[in-house]
């Protein structure tokens, strides 16, 4: 697993930067009602998407939360006074405090189904009745675009996907949320080249392939034989799910 405190300074430039953030924010906002006034972005990271959520709707008061100091510090530079250092499994907010809760590229990082259920339950708890919960799903699967790079990496050991669509949807429903929509957006600038994939292997990007391990180096050697070492293959396409907390007031 990457150290996201150390990743904070390079996170944006290695993951599509502003074009990807714009695509993500547009997809997320498309699932959030226009009347929302308070939004919580859980695992806001560097705040690159969070800032766009706030800028797109001037009447929307946005709060960001992140567990890692390096990420939260960077986000706070983009959203002064609106970022909290906290764990998504124990959100420091009262029940029903927000009209919308978002989680972009969070659930796939969690250790197991128990943590995913806990985060989804916390997001549901801080939602007011009628509020919207929006989250990305199937993060790892999105990067498999059917390229020659994917063919080389196909036999690698994989971490079980914690953010599979079916699982996340079942957790949300168990927390009383209703599915209301889906969206997709491109991971602009995140198409892999063979050379960049080798670099990612050697920096610990693939969680079951430790840097320097013999198996990791065997995959690196195979990738080095592919043509067009610096040509990026197709961008991934990410998936988003939207849910609503029912308003059962008379």
Uncertain stretches of 5 or more adjacent residues: none
- The H-level CATH homologous superfamily, spelled out, is Vaccinia Virus protein VP39
Secondary structure tally: strands: 7
Largest sheet: 7 strands, mixed
Summarize the structure.
Helices cover 35% and strands 19% of the residues. The chain contains 10 helices and 7 strands. The longest helix has 13 residues, at 17-29.
What does this structure look like?
By secondary structure, this protein is an alpha/beta fold. It has one domain (4-143, 160-190, 235-244): Vaccinia Virus protein VP39 (Rossmann fold). It is 35% helix and 19% strand. It has helices at residues 4-7, 17-29, 48-56, 69-78, 113-125, 139-142, 148-153, 165-174, 194-202, 214-223, and strands spanning 38-42, 61-66, 83-85, 98-103, 127-137, 178-186, 237-244. A 7-stranded mixed beta sheet has the order 3-2-1-4-5-7-6. β2 (61-66), α4 (69-78) and β3 (83-85) form a beta-alpha-beta unit. α2 (17-29) crosses α3 and α9 runs antiparallel to α10 (214-223). The chain is elongated and about 60 Å long. The chain starts with a helix and ends in a 6-residue tail after the last strand. The mean pLDDT is 92.
Question: What is the secondary structure topology, with strand pairs?
Answer:
Elements: H1 4-7, H2 17-29, E1 38-42, H3 48-56, E2 61-66, H4 69-78, E3 83-85, E4 98-103, H5 113-125, E5 127-137, H6 139-142, H7 148-153, H8 165-174, E6 178-186, H9 194-202, H10 214-223, E7 237-244
Parallel strand pairs: 1-2, 1-4, 2-3, 4-5
Antiparallel strand pairs: 5-7, 6-7
Helix pairs in contact: 2-3, 5-8, 9-10
């Amino acid at each position: 697993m990457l150290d996201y405190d150390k990743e904070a300074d390079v996170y944006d430039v290695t993951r599509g930067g502003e074009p990807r953030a714009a695509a993500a924010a547009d997809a997320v906002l498309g699932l959030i009602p226009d009347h929302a006034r308070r939004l919580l972005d859980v695992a806001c990271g560097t705040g690159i998407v969070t800032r766009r959520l706030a800028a797109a709707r001037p009447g929307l008061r946005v709060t960001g939360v992140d567990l890692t100091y390096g990420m939260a510090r960077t986000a706070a530079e983009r959203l002064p006074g609106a970022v909290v250092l906290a764990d998504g499994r124990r959100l420091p907010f009262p029940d029903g405090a927000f009209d919308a809760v978002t989680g972009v590229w969070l659930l796939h990082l969690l250790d197991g189904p128990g943590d995913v259920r806990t985060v989804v339950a916390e997001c549901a708890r801080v939602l007011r009745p009628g509020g919207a919960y929006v989250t990305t799903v199937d993060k790892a699967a999105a990067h498999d675009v059917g390229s020659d790079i994917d063919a080389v990496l196909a036999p690698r050991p994989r971490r079980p996907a914690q953010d599979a669509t079916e699982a996340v949807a079942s957790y949300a429903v168990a927390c009383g949320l209703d599915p209301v929509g889906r969206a997709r957006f491109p991971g602009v600038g995140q198409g892999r080249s063979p050379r960049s994939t080798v670099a990612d292997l050697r920096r610990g990007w693939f969680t079951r392939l430790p840097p320097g391990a013999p198996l990791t180096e065997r995959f690196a050697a195979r990738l080095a034989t592919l043509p067009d070492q610096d040509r990026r293959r197709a961008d991934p396409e990410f998936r988003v799910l939207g849910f609503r907390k029912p308003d059962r007031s008379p």
